[in-house]
Amino acid sequence: MTTQWFKLEPFFEMQMRQRKTTKKVESTEDLDKFDELTEENQTRVNKALENYLTEREKPKPKVKRAKRKTKNEDGKEKKSTPKKKKAKIENEGKPNVDLFAGVNPECTPKEAAKALLKVAEELKFNLPKDETDATIRCGQQLMGNKTDGKFDFMKALKSLANEMQCPEKVPGQKAKKKRPAPVAAMEENQGLVECFWELGNFEFKNRGDKFKGINYHKVCRALAGLDFKVTSGAAIAKGKKKVAGIGASSGKKIDEYLETGKIDRLERFRVGDFS
Q: Each residue of 180-214: pLDDT tens digit?
């Protein structure tokens, strides 16, 4: 196998113009001998790769196509009938019950945090197990939704629900459809596939780390495409049986799951610990 050399920025610009079906570099694990680069060059590559992935995720502007004019049998143009607008339903998306009835919006931050925590617990939010940590999370959302000295409890509740990834638990809120994890070619690997898919979703939505989110989803798709049962993460992370897109770090998480049935980082994410 020969090594090909490219200038850094033009290389990723070239990838932006390539077809979707063309194999691309989406992770440092796709680069041969990346670990042998100097620390300075590794940083440059990581920065360029992150910029490329960010640009690639940006939505492309839609090009409006001109509508074809249709004609009647006598050759005259048909008049288009305007679409009827749906009447707006009042109170749509609003809870029927005042969840914070009797709570003073001008109360102290400590009292407000306790009130918000109580409602969140009653609605069975995915809160941190540690009560102090859960109270701090509530306080942060309240301080971000305070105007003219008054707390907006409903806005804080919705923000907290989004942070805890359970917006559907707020009364009146419609649950957003979640993209399901890919289906594994080997049923025995489905548990691993779903764990890495969920890890990627947490990185995107809760930690805002697109780079890690994309990498986790790439590992997920690589595992889904395997036609054999995974019995060792280390074995498919390097050596003759290495699977493209799976590196040493992912291999360790795979072994952790195979040994314990769970991944510690994912378990912490599930209870709201994103440190």
A: 889 999 999 999 999 999 999 888 877 778 888 89
Burial zone of 218 (CB within 10 Å; 0-12 exposed, 13-18 middle, 19+ buried): buried
Question: Token pair of 39, please?
Answer: 């620390």
C-alpha to C-alpha distance for 222 and 233, rounded to whole angstroms: 12
120 vs 81, 94, 107, 138, CA distance in Å?
48, 17, 18, 9
CA nearest neighbour of 195 among 206, 185, 184: 184
SS3 labels along 92-125: CCCCCCCCCCCCCCCCCHHHHHHHHHHHHHHCCC
Under the phi-then-psi rule, with left for phi > 0, alpha for psi from -120 to 50, and beta for the rest, what region is 258? alpha
CA distance 262 to 264: 6
